[in-house]
Write a structure and sequence with these properties.
67 residues, single chain, mainly alpha
Length: 67
């Protein structure tokens, strides 16, 4: 696996910090349209992504299901 992270200044400082690490389809989207459904489905896949990242990198991404 290879990953490319693009930031304007330093990693974790620009676009990465703007979202504050929040997956907020329920709090950021108001409509039950196709994009909302896409965002909700995307959120459901983060547990699989967390497990795969942890397995390959030995890094805990600290995914928390509350807030």
């Amino acid at each position: 696996m290879s990953v490319l992270v693009l930031e304007s200044n330093r990693i974790g400082n620009g676009a990465t910090s703007a979202a504050a690490g929040m997956l907020g389809a329920n709090s950021e989207l108001e409509n039950n349209d196709a994009f909302f459904q896409f965002a909700k489905e995307s959120q459901r896949h983060y547990h699989v992504l967390r497990d795969e990242l942890s397995q390959f990198s030995q890094i805990n991404i600290q995914l928390v299901d509350k807030g």
